[in-house]
Amino acid sequence: MAARHLAAGAADRLARPGRRGRPPERLPRLLGDLGPTYVKGAQLLSTRADLLSPAVCDALGRLHDRVPGMSAAQLDRALSEAYPDGSAWPFRTFDRTAVAGGSIACVYRAALLDGTDVAVKLLRPGVRRAMETDFALLASGARLAERLPPLRGVPARRVVRQLGDALLRQVDLAREADSLALLRANLADLPFVRVPAPFPAAAGPGALVMEYVERLERFAPGDFGKEERRQIVRNVLRCVYRMLFIDGLVHCDMHPGNLYLGPDGSVVLLDAGFVVRLEPRVRLLFARFFMNLSLGRAAEAAESVLRSAEHVPAGCDLDAFRAEIGALVEESAGRTAGQFRLAPFATRLFDIQRRSGVAAAPEFVFPLMSLLVLEGMINDFDVDVDFQGEAIPTLLAALNG
């Protein structure tokens, strides 16, 4: 979350009129120079057209899948680290031109020895050390932040540590292969979702090999009609709500570089690097809160927040707390995607908790992050979709299962 705020500050400063030589077009290069942690923050921000100007969102959006690939020397180093024994080379052909470039890794097309087309994800050399340094700095900032009067009681260090652990898992490609296989198994009964199969036998340290999916289209409204756009949004929401409320294995990085449309209109999930496992207690508490929000049950929603809190101070005015949470829920319940904004809702929710001294559980960062990343893209497709109501069938299955 701190990376997001730092990236937001940079975006805001560069977007102000009158700053010569620093137009939004320079944002991708600036953030790329700062390192992968800040690029990840920018990727989240680029989906928030309701918070940033179109020029800034467009500039940040280039970081999703248009980051330059590795140089020839970097690619040679990455391949030698992944396949140090030349006799274990698993490919018949390997195209050295990247099909996608990210801040952490680049993807190349290849063919296995049996001719199977695959995508090969290779870590950029030195990326782990750079991210560890970034999060050491952010952890220091979090320690200082916790001493500020407005942030006392906010577990900033724990939030940064959890976010850092989750992002650092993105450089563990063996773990990502396992997450990809689990997501594929969990979502197998959703015919409108496709997750590429991993090929662990062809992998190496710093290399993930997976099925190559042909003819992908960017996740954008494009030429789709109104009903087609609504169906696509419903499919995405059903997929996300399934992960959040039933499986507890959550893809927290569903930005346009990782979410595509197949030629049949299916939703294609790529990159399982930022996948978080929710503990059953957290999953159920979040499900209860979201259900109460969707149905406008203010009192029950307030109780869900209290039960999920990490700390409730002695002497807290619980009646006032319940009243404020209840008022927020009543204002927000039953709104469409175009009317409901998760970012200001979450800001108000956490502000109420902060002023009351009710410390929010840091585990709630990840479900909210998954929805925040997705919210901007959903609004591009269909502002009238019932963002909350679409969750109810899945919530009922989760809470009654």
Automatic annotation (TrEMBL):
PROSITE patterns cross-referenced by the UniProt entry? PROTEIN_KINASE_DOM
The protein's matches in InterPro entries, at most eight in alphabetical order, are given as: ABC1_dom (IPR004147), ADCK_kinase (IPR052402), Kinase-like_dom_sf (IPR011009), Prot_kinase_dom (IPR000719)
Q: Where is the composition biased (Low complexity)?
A: 1-12
Q: Name one GO molecular function term.
A: ATP binding
Protein kinase domain span? 93-401
UniProt superkingdom: Bacteria
- Region span, Disordered: 1-30
This chain belongs to which protein, by name? Answer: Protein kinase domain-containing protein
